[in-house]
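In this section we walk through a basic example: taking a raw amino acid sequence and producing a predicted 3D structure, encoded as discrete structure tokens. The instruction is simple. Fold the sequence below.
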Amino acid sequence: MFAHIRHAVAVLVLISATAAPSRSSSQETDRFRELARRVVQTSAAVKPGDAVIVSGGRHTTPFMEALGVEVIRAGATPWLSLESDRLFATFFRELPEQHLRTFDSVSTAIYGDQLKRANAMIILPFSDNPDTLLQSFTADTVRMAKLMKTFGASQQRFDEMRNTARTRFVFLNYPPTKSDIARSGMDSASFDRMIWEAINADYDRIANQGRAIKRLLDAGKTVRVTTPTGTDIRLSLTGRAAAVIGATLPAGQGQAKLSAQRSVTLPGGRVAVAPLETSANGKVVIARDNCFGSPVVNAQFELRSGKMTGFRADSGGACITNFLNSSPGPDDVVGALSIGLNPALKPVEAGVGYRPWEASGAVVLALGNNTDLGGKNNTPAGVPFWLARATVEIDGKVVVRDGQVVSDVAQVR
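The resulting token sequence is shown next.
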């Protein structure tokens, strides 16, 4: 079970998850059936004889069942894996310290066996309210440090298993959860409508934009990112292939060597790359962000040879520093740069804020683990920073300007 949510514990990521939408049960059933068919046939590209693992939380069981039904109809074999907030909490709070290493070893071995057998893994939100769940855990810095030390010892093996497998990964940020609805400030029906429109966005156009930016990143030498708040950083590229993460895998991509290249998300639409870890230099200034649903205001730090130094914030910074201090590292070293491409997803900066990575023009600088993109940061932890209204230049060519993907990006050479 816990192998599927290892990075939910270990990576400080804005997980997309929200309360059940306000629709009738028949409408919900029809939507689950419709989306399940699309996921199985297209996103996961399930074939007769495939083994397919479907994992999710208790609130996702109707959708998990619909996915299992479609897997069977495709002539494949489903294996449903149910996650639970209660089990997760018991593991975090009550598993005796002397058994942590054994628990991690066994769960990692089980995950390795699953990767050997599963042609596809379809992963739904593991919790209906991950912010509330994870806030209480990260506040216990002593216990978190012990967990991170344990995870750190096996992280390289964990990452190698994912990258040497040929499993296709489909991450579904649906049904929406309470955390994202709360962050967005929207009512559940409006939020659900936005997510559904993003799931049904023009993915051909998204893929064309993604491929254009990928070409520049794959051949490029330097990326510069600036924002109106004062961010100005430069990163060096190393020829590592960027990943275009959309709603389907391009032909032949299911056999890619890196797990990010075999991954699909819904809603989807972003391109990500792992720069040279020691190359990033400059200043990062972030007016607003959040840490597990808690506001972070006026955060800033320097990057020197890729490493974060001098982090401070007017408020909310303790959540980030406590998390970073609990990890053995290199969680404070640049790991990846992500550019969002989905025009149906809209960030919200008011209140706590909702900042989906896949929103068109979204730029996220992620510190920490980047092995799924071919990087070298073998760490169980990481921290992403949303760079609002960013401008991104690749070898002087602008692909994002003031938080908007340039209209002719597919023609940029």
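Looking at the output, two observations stand out. The radius of gyration is 20 Å. The first helix runs from residue 6 to 10. In the next section we compare this with other chains.
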